[in-house]
Amino acid sequence: MDLDLLVTFLEIYRRGSLTAAATARGISQPAVSGQLARLEEQLGEALFTRSRNGAHPTARAHELARRIGPHLDGLRHTLAEEANEQAYQGTVRLGAASEFTAARLLPALAPLTRRGLHLRITLGLAEPLLASLADGELDLVVSSVRPPAELRGLAATPYVDEEFVLVGTPTAARSIDPQHLAEDPVAALAHLPLVAYAEELPIIRRYWRSEFNRRPPNPVSVLVPDLRAVLAAVIADAGISVLPRYLAEPALNAGSLEQLHRPQVLPLNTLYLVTRSGSAPPALQLVRRRLLDHATTWGPL
């Protein structure tokens, strides 16, 4: 007897209709009807009576489901475990920013390596990483931007939101007049030097424009292309900066930094999980699912 016929029968039995069974099996309803008819022909008796309310099992159907159900469930479980174990034997090539990789990506994925998964991580900015993904050099990129239209064949899934905070030392905070900050924040902050990630002040400039509708006039004391180094310089009182909350949170909790400005609407930036379009190998599916599951517990970063 064809195993597919028994699987289809069990789906109809458990779901109560041919339509639901077809959806569960990923085949058409006529195909389900045909498989049921073949099984009933082989057994020599009807297994269901059909009505507007669905498919109602006969006594023979109850007996058959009782006999085959546990065995088919066990086989499915064994096959799923085997597929899962095969996924752990693969290699996944990821690209992401160094700060996010250290703070979130590696802690989420490292436990998978204990079961055999291999990770190869490339650190860098979103644009070159996305180009490498499109060229087939990477399997997945955690990107701070959507893939541009010219990079065809990429699929982006919203992953998690980064929240940005303006921070400085308690000494810097005491130098800001609260009333002046409320009335003219750009002027109230202008005496404080900036610690920036790049010459163009990408994160800081976006914060000033979104919150204050102006570019920052402040002098720049330190330029360093690593947000963890920016954090260290701010803690050392080299200036103020805008950082993702997930990086600044430990220092804020410890009191070595303070949030200098509290916007009415959180300044957020969405990160995306980007892969090439089409079917993904089991190891990549495993990593992507793990990252999405972890993100549900984080909230805005």
UniProtKB/TrEMBL annotation:
Ranges where the HTH lysR-type domain occurs: 1-58
Keywords linked to the UniProt accession: DNA-binding, Transcription, Transcription regulation
Domain of life: Bacteria
InterPro entries to which the protein is assigned, alphabetical: LysR_HTH_N (IPR000847), LysR_subst-bd (IPR005119), WH-like_DNA-bd_sf (IPR036388), WH_DNA-bd_sf (IPR036390)
A Pfam family of this chain: LysR_substrate
Stored PROSITE patterns: HTH_LYSR
Similarity remark: Belongs to the LysR transcriptional regulatory family.
The protein's name in its UniProt record: LysR family transcriptional regulator
Organism field: Streptomyces thermoalcalitolerans
